[in-house]
Amino acid sequence: MRLNLKDIILISGGSVPFDYQLDLTQLDFNGAYPVREPVKAVGEVRNTAGVLNLTATLTTNLHLTCDRCGESFQREKVVKVDSLVADHLDNEISENNDEILLLDGNELDLDDALTTAFILNMDTKILCREDCKGLCAGCGANLNYESCRCRREVDPRFAVLASLLENQDGDA
After folding, report:
1. pTM for the complete prediction?
2. pLDDT of residue 159
3. Which long-range contacts (CB under 8 A, 24 or more apart) does 84-90 make?
């Protein structure tokens, strides 16, 4: 979606609201496509004392797989966007600020700006919950739901003691 801002570029206090759905279903995150539903984008571009500011909220449900335990789950994703918009950049400004969005004539490419913000706010580590225990490397048990079924390896330095314990269990 291209947002025409010609009516507010020179008018302090002016704003152009938007409310639409962004299709990000084709975004590939390490071979997975977690965005299966439209992303709702609501916001505005406002001229405050001659400075254009884009504010938006992006909302969708992500369909994810936990990096630790492999469980599939869904989670709501909300991304807040707050960026400056300019018609051109001076060399000094462009070196110090990568977050300024540039106009194409009098228009702002919202799809590009909001897609970039959404991608940059994706988690690098996907967990079904913060305290996910993951899978046992030995037996593969999901430690969130069951205990490890592996037989504990005995440190060779304590092998004689372990054999005494086994003999004692057999005598009882």
Report:
1. 0.77
2. 77
3. 84/51, 84/52, 84/53, 84/54, 85/5, 85/45, 85/52, 85/53, 85/54, 86/52, 87/9
